palmitoyl-CoA hydrolase
Amino acid sequence: MLMLRRGLSLKVFRKRAEEACPREKAKQIMRPDDANVAGNVHGGTILKMIEEAGAIISTRHCNSQNGERCVAALARVERTDFLSPMCIGEVAHVSAEITYTSKHSVEVQVHVMSENILTGTKKLTNKATLWYVPLSLKDVDKVLEVPPVVYSRQEQEEEGRKRYEAQKLERMETKWRNGDIVQPGLNPEPNTVGYSQSSLIHLVGPSDCTLHGFVHGGVTMKLMDEVAGIVAARHCKTNIVTASVDAINFHDKIRKGYVITISGRMTFTSNKSMEIEVLVDADPVVDNSQKRYRAASAFFTYVSLSQEGRSLPVPQLMPETEDEKKRFEEGKGRYLQMKAKRQGQAEPQP
């Protein structure tokens, strides 16, 4: 935090504080069309609000200096946990803060609080970290440089650089292993991968896009959550809610007029959770010069709930093919890794 030093006016102090840690805040009341039949707000709705806040603050920062105008495009969302459900009638408080900038990217950390306006009770529902890159308005394939931020401590810049290098490496690894597609099965049995897998085909229209003709990251994430939710509901046939989302990687832009296919398949189940892989493929149907390509990918984790909101056992997935068994073991590894991490965080500190 910046400290108000003697001889430094309050006006100058506030200006420097804003430069050091730009922030954005927004509020929105949750309505029936934001929620499922049980009254819980869709995870995709919350992800869309998170991305909108991140896009606003990063675009504003990237245009804070004289130079070529740009728009910030979402490149990656780190793992996001849904810490507490949000319900119809509650107010979502979304706050975003820029925490690191590299030469060509911006890290934004977003917090979401839910408020019961009848009782005044507030609770933290989500924390997310997003990465954006500034694209030129004259040429959206051109990435511009990001204005630097002023760090109050040298350690903040060093910690941010480590996060930047880690996400960059993981994003490249994910892109290279994303070549497979979801194939439909014939007469699949219950509890198999083919039984619950789902796909959604969507024509990208103007309302899905920025003013510059490519899709909002939040729109894509909302569609991904809808497909993952259908897969989870088909598998367990109960009310389901989003528990967490592993890193969402955006490999390439999706333009207006493209057709996107969002495919989801079950990869792993534990006793009380299920992991769904979601793939987004873009098809430039009216552009013969470009082929269909992988635009985004992520793993969503869901839990099954009773009508009273209690956790229910999840039917165990029955992988059949060698690829399904391999994905099951990979999902099990991610599950055990996160379980160990949560247990380590829960241990009392000496």
About this structure: Confidence is low (pLDDT under 50) at residues 1-19.
